[in-house]
TrEMBL record:
Residues 1-24 are annotated as: Disordered. This is Phage tail protein. It comes from the Bacteria. Residues 12-24 have a biased composition (Pro residues).
Length: 328
C-alpha cells in the first residue's frame, strides 16, 4: 500500500543574477566565385542559384581543402636514438575539391554554362582566382590551377539533359589566402616642417625628418602569417639599410647618391620576384651590401630598423604588403 510521506526539502531558488545565454549573431550567406584566364576573365558566381527558372552554376555541399593548408614536417632520424628530431615545417600546396552543379532551363543553356566553365578553368589560359567572402567581412583570394574533374561522366547520377555534376579539383601552389593590398607605411626624410604629418587614418603613416637611423619603427601586418614587403625608395638617397631582427639588406655609402633624385627604386622581396629595379630599368642588385637578406614582415605588430641618408632634397620611402591568411 502507498506510504504517505512529507516534502522534506525546499526547491532550489534561481540565482539573483541569472546569466543570459549568448544570442546568435545574424550572419548572411558566404559568397564564392571563380575567375579564370589568369584572374582577368569573367567572374563566375558559385553561390548565386536563383531557383529552377534561372540557369546557373552553384556550389554544393562537400567542398574540401578551403581551411588550413597542409603542412610538411621535416625531421632527421638517428639509428641509435628512438624517434626523430624535428627540423622545420613548411606549408605545402593546397589541394581543393569543389562540387559544382550546372543547371540549365534547356540543353542549350547547360551547354553554354559548361563551355564557359571549361574555358575559364583551362590552365593553358592561366591560373584562376577563387574568391570567398563571408558576410560583412573582407574578401579573401586564392590563386589556383585547374587539375581535373571536368572530364565528364554520363552516368544517370552525374548528368542529365539539363544538368551536370562536377567535382572540380584545384591546386593552389601558394597555399595562403590574400586580401586586398594593405598600404602599411610611408615616410618622408629630409627637409620637413613637422615630424609627424597628420593623415586621415593611422595608415599610411607619414613621417618627415632628416637623417634617420632607428631600430624601433612600429609596423603592423594584419595577416595570419608573415608577408613579403615591396619597398619603394624615391631619391635622392645616398645610402639605406632596412632591418628586421637579425636580418637586413641595403646599399652602403657611396661617393654619389645610391638612388638619384627623381628616381624611384622598387625592391620586391616576394618569392619568385626578388628584384631591385628603378623606374628607368636599372638593376640595383649588384649594389647590395654583403650577405643581404630580403626579409619578410612577421604577422602582428613588430618593429623594424630603418637607416636612410637622404641627399640634397627630400626622399620618400614606402612599404606595401599583401597580407596572407590561413583561411577565409
Amino acid at each position: 500500500m502507498p506510504i504517505p510521506a512529507s516534502w522534506d526539502f525546499l526547491p532550489e531558488k534561481p540565482p539573483a543574477n541569472r546569466p543570459s545565454p549568448p544570442v546568435p549573431k545574424k550572419w548572411g550567406h558566404t559568397y564564392v566565385s571563380i575567375t579564370g584566364n589568369a584572374g582577368k576573365g569573367e567572374e563566375i558566381p558559385l553561390t548565386g542559384f536563383g531557383g529552377r527558372y534561372w540557369p546557373n552554376i552553384f556550389m554544393q555541399a562537400g567542398a574540401t581543402g578551403l581551411d588550413m593548408p597542409p603542412m610538411e614536417i621535416h625531421s632527421d632520424t638517428s639509428p641509435n636514438l628512438a624517434g626523430s628530431m624535428y627540423r622545420s615545417t613548411r606549408a605545402a600546396a593546397r589541394e581543393i575539391m569543389i562540387p559544382l552543379f550546372l543547371y540549365g532551363i534547356d540543353r542549350y543553356t547547360v551547354r553554354r554554362l559548361k563551355q564557359s566553365l571549361i574555358r575559364a578553368l583551362n590552365p593553358l589560359n592561366g591560373h584562376c582566382v577563387l574568391k570567398i567572402q563571408e558576410s560583412g567581412l573582407p574578401a579573401r583570394y586564392l590563386k589556383c590551377w585547374y587539375k581535373g574533374g571536368l572530364e565528364g561522366n554520363e552516368s544517370e547520377d552525374s548528368s542529365g539533359f539539363r544538368w551536370i555534376r562536377y567535382g572540380v579539383q584545384l591546386t593552389a601552389m601558394d597555399p595562403w589566402y590574400y586580401g586586398d593590398d594593405f598600404h602599411v607605411a610611408e615616410w618622408t626624410f629630409g627637409q620637413g616642417s613637422s615630424f609627424l604629418k597628420p593623415a586621415k587614418s593611422l595608415f599610411p603613416l607619414s613621417i618627415s625628418q632628416g637623417l634617420v637611423s632607428r631600430e624601433d619603427f612600429p609596423v603592423t601586418n594584419p595577416g595570419d602569417v608573415s608577408a613579403w614587403p615591396v619597398w619603394e625608395v624615391t631619391g635622392p638617397v645616398r645610402r639605406f639599410r632596412f632591418t628586421c631582427g637579425d636580418r637586413s639588406f641595403g646599399i652602403d655609402g657611396r661617393a654619389q647618391d645610391a638612388v638619384p633624385g627623381g628616381t624611384t627604386l622598387k625592391i620586391d622581396t616576394r618569392p619568385g620576384h626578388k628584384t631591385l629595379l628603378d623606374d628607368k630599368g636599372k638593376n640595383y642588385w649588384p649594389l647590395l651590401g654583403k650577405s643581404p637578406s630580403l626579409w619578410p614582415l612577421p604577422s602582428g605588430r613588430s618593429q623594424i630598423g630603418i637607416e636612410l641618408v637622404p641627399g640634397s632634397a627630400n626622399a620618400t620611402l614606402r612599404m606595401t604588403i599583401a597580407p596572407r591568411y590561413e583561411t577565409y
